[in-house]
């Protein structure tokens, strides 16, 4: 997956954007449908799409290596208004995983940051995980909000 990280000084917003499926490698990621534990180091009921998690896991440290210094440069986590994470199709799946991961990361690293600190907006994203993953997603309602736009006729989204 290809992504972009930028920020707007005026609105104090960091943007993380993921591109959708564009290569054969991306297509193979899309069809790697097996559900695996979300937390690789522990067994749980939270299951996610293996291909999406493998792709995100390969990018995770690169993302943190950019975002953490950027947050520090902007004056710390409390000085940042929002982190907007977005993507289309495969990129939407990556955005979904990144949003949950960033909510967890920022909560552990900086404590309470407030509602809507992390905003996840996806377009045509496929399902990422099981019902337990959805419950895990909603457990971050105090820091994260999400908007998922789908075409009801698009079979990828359902």
Question: Could you describe the 3D structure shown?
Answer:
GO terms for molecular function: hydrolase activity. Pfam families: Lipase_3. InterPro entries: AB_hydrolase_fold, Fungal_lipase-type, Sec_MonoDiacylglyc_Lipase. Residues 15-144 form the Fungal lipase-type domain. There is one protein chain. Helix content is 38%, strand content 23%. α2 (50-73) packs across α3 (90-110). The chain has helices at 24-30, 50-73, 90-110, 131-138; strands spanning 3-8, 13-18, 35-37, 47-49, 82-88, 118-123, 144-149. With 158 residues, it is an alpha/beta fold. A hairpin with a 4-residue loop joins β1 (3-8) and β2 (13-18).
Keywords:
single chain, 158 residues, alpha/beta, Rossmann fold, five-stranded mixed β-sheet, two-stranded antiparallel ribbon, 4 helices, 7 strands, globular, AB_hydrolase_fold, hydrolase activity, Sec_MonoDiacylglyc_Lipase
Query: What is the fold named in CATH at topology level?
Result: Rossmann fold
For the sheet with most strands, the description reads: 5 strands, mixed
* Number of β-strand runs: 7
Low-confidence stretches: none
User: Which strand order do you get reading across the main beta sheet?
Assistant: 1-2-5-6-7
Distance between the ends = 21 Å
- The first-level CATH class name: Alpha Beta
CATH superfamily: Alpha/Beta hydrolase fold, catalytic domain
Q: What percent of residues are in strands?
A: 15-25%
Helix content: 25-40%
Q: Helix and strand string, N-terminal first?
A: EEHEEHEHEHE
Shape descriptor: globular
InterPro entries: AB_hydrolase_fold (IPR029058), Fungal_lipase-type (IPR002921), Sec_MonoDiacylglyc_Lipase (IPR051218)
GO molecular function, one term: hydrolase activity
Domain Fungal lipase-type: 15-144
GO biological process, one term: lipid metabolic process
């Amino acid at each position: 997956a290809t992504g972009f990280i930028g920020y707007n000084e005026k609105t104090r917003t960091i943007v993380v954007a993921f591109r959708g499926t564009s290569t054969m490698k991306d297509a193979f990621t899309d069809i790697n449908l097996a559900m695996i534990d979300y937390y690789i180091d522990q067994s749980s009921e939270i299951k996610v799409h293996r291909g999406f998690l493998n792709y995100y896991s390969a990018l995770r440290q690169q993302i943190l290596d950019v975002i953490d210094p950027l947050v520090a440069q902007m004056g710390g986590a409390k000085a940042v208004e929002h982190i907007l994470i977005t993507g289309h199709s495969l990129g939407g799946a990556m955005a979904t995983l990144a949003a949950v991961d960033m909510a967890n990361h920022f909560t552990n690293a900086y404590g309470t940051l407030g509602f809507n600190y992390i905003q996840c907006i996806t377009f045509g994203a496929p399902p990422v995980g099981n019902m337990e993953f959805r419950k895990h997603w909603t457990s971050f309602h105090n820091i994260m909000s999400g908007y998922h736009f789908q075409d009801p006729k698009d079979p990828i989204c359902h």
